[in-house]
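[Primary structure, fold]
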Amino acid sequence: MNIDDLAWQAETVGAISSRVALTLIEYGHLGTVIQAALERGDWNCAKHAVQTLCADGEFDRALEVLQPFTATGWPTARWQTAHVMARQGRGEEALAMMRPDRTQADDERYLARYAELAASAGRIDTAITTLTPYLHQGWLLSTLVELTEGQGCDERMLELLTHALARATGRPGTDPSEILVHTAQVLERAGRTDEATALLRAEMAAGRLHYPNVPRHFAALLARQGLTEELAHLAAIIDVAVPTYVEELSAAGRAADAETLLRERLRGLDRDHDRVRLMTFLGRQGRIDEAVEVGLPACEDHDNGGIVHQLLGLLVDDNRPGRALQVLDNLTGWWVDGHPSDVQHMRLWLLGQADRHTEALAHARTLPRTEPGEWDPSIADLLDSTGRTEEAVTLLRASPHRDAAHHLAEILARTGRPDGAIAAYPSIAEQRAEYERRQSAWKQPEPATLTEALAQIEWDEEWNERYGG
């Protein structure tokens, strides 16, 4: 176990998957997960084992699991250990362990984590003192506002926010509107809602260019205060306020008004996000066919697989996977042309949802393979779902596909073979070597000839024309 391997695991989410570790724990195999953490140096197993142990109040045992990871000096493990100690009631020891030294005194990310640790240890004054010099930084300010909620220090926070605003105004690289938003948050939670509303109302009226957070927070504040007419005016002029207004109308029993608003926006300027809003709204109303009709143009005209997934999901949730298959098979456009593998994966999933497993298996075995074992995990999932679990296990054991180990381990974890689930994974060193090999293979070589270079330029121009790059 060493820092380099641990950092690689955290960066790539390598090693045993969280899903497998959690499945093993759910099925009563916590001891196996702990053993894998200690013997393999597997951080995912260690992390989830520690969370489970702490939830059960077994803090000493959690610290024993963390000890070899912490001994490497890896910062992530040291922070985890400190948080366990804080939950155990050893807050002062935890803070002493992680107290910033001279090299960390100006490391804002380190200081943010230290403040979080202080708050978890019940030392909110320490958290405030640690971050006070950096409140002109929006994300640090957000951190402190979150940490101090419910701690009885709202008045102190308002004083700090006033000073932070004075420092930020006119300072290059700062956005005073962030501070105003957080001031409104603290005012509202302190029960001074009228002042919070007046503050953001004045900021919006000033006509300054804002990031979406200001109107979004203002819209949510207006909704919580029941100021529907003002919210309607805001939604008419600022796009990010529309979802909040639609939710408010729906909650007030004015679904027809919400639908009218969304349809009028779509008639004014046909944009994907407006189509998705209307599609989602109609789906929540149970009007699935209308939702599909609204969403289809966005699926066909743009490189947006997320919308396709959402639309097909509406039909599956409505127990109509067969209709979803028809929609998928009739799709045309950039997304379908550019993502043939994704389309086939969706098709196999939908065939399974429709209980057409025999057809799905036959289809999967005829699909072209752009890499070894490409369809093996999908075929195995289909076999497993029809009770042919051992056939799925045999296929995955022999498969060269990079995800085969994950799928195999999940099946073994669910079927009472915890040791086999762990053994399905190569060692950390082997996984890392394979990852680095794939990374090298995926690096696009420089064009070797003028013809190749011109072809690449032509493709780049076409991509930019299509997608606005």
Q: What stands out?
A: Residues 356-425 form one domain. Residues 463-469 have pLDDT under 50 and may be disordered.
